[in-house]
Specification:
Blueprint (H helix, E strand, L loop, with lengths): L2 E6 L9 E6 L8 H10 L1 H12 L11 E5 L7 E6 L10 H18 L3 E4 L11 H14 L6 E6 L2 H11 L1
Parallel strand pairs: 1-6, 2-4, 2-5, 5-6
Antiparallel strand pairs: 3-4
Helix pairs in contact: 3-4, 4-5
Amino acid sequence: MTTITIVQGDITRQSVDAIVNAANSSLLGGGGVDGAIHRRGGPAILADCRRLRASHYGKGLATGRAVATTAGELDARWVIHTVGPVYQASGSDPSLLASCYRASLEVADELGARTVAFPAVSTGVYGWPMADAARIAVEAVRAARTAVEEVRFVLFDDKAYQVFAELIH
């Protein structure tokens, strides 16, 4: 059974098997969590992402999918990149957001990862409302059939932490 924990802090400082990156489809870095992971992890992550783009993901990674790279200088073995959906008041598909968590856990299982740290995918510049995103994330992780022993939601600020805490406890 998977244990779900929450912490407030910097996801790039987590000591886990895999850190999930809320990536953009290009896989080539960006702002927010994506930029922080690339900056702290160093050039090895970007080099792996470029190799993925040159081979299987020439058009980028599709929304709701996940793929792994090295973690570079992070205190993890892998970074699992997933592309969350952009929130739109009409037409946002919660199944795509849930798929980010399921697909990331499937990749974690393929890698043999037992501890995985997730950010709140799509809640930054992609604009998904925190309460709804948290509910979707927690439900997706609870429903997942995975060998991952601990899923750690790493929330950057107190507001996000409180929203997740209400769902977890």
